[in-house]
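Write out this protein's structure.
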Amino acid sequence: MTPVLALALVLGLAVGSFLNVVIYRVPRRESVLRPGSHCPACGMGVRPWQNVPVLSWLLLRGRCAGCRARISARYPLVEVATATLFVAVTARFGLAPELPAYLYLGAVSLALALIDLDVRRLPNSIVLPSYAIGAILLLGAALAGHDWTAATRGLIAMAALFALYYGIALAYRGGMGFGDVKLAGVLGLYLGWLGWSSVLVGAFAGFLLGGLVGTALLVTRRAGRRSALPYGPFMLAGALIAVFLADPIASWYTAQFLPTS
């Protein structure tokens, strides 16, 4: 592993530890800064040595040092998943000016996906600031790389995906929440920067994943036709698929269905 990827790994573990706080507190409308990390069962504060990503959970054997209440395995899994995403994103972009923007996308995608699965909601306190943060980071990348075409395309794609999902939400009331509509604009900004193939692959992958999982749940009778299924995680997964695989997917599709003479 190169020093840059090793740094991304360490940074991802640290960010993943913070994301655990975000995932737990934001849906409860609690501050992510105060009070400090503590056991939700007994309220005992977490000491620095007990807050080392992954390692502390292993040393404590998944239990609080004070009351011995169980600590969910999701905490180290979130840290590992964030670190993995950070390494993958860094390998994908290298030290390009847009790297910070896509590291942020990876982190916020993981947090929003888990929150949506937990409470069936995409909090405005995360989604709305992501418009400004994404725009600022990508504007900085455009200034550094003089790539105003990508920036303009990102803004157009942001508006296009927002409009598309807004139309779907109006046409199928109850089938898609307005949180999904707002998230679509954020994803459009990031995917549009990469290219129109990324926008198309990301949107289609989200619909495809949602349809496949929904069908599987119906077939196995784990859900009914009226069951609420959070769509945000599928949108986010589709966007990440596009970030990494849009070009090969688009090339494969073109070769299969639009053969050259």
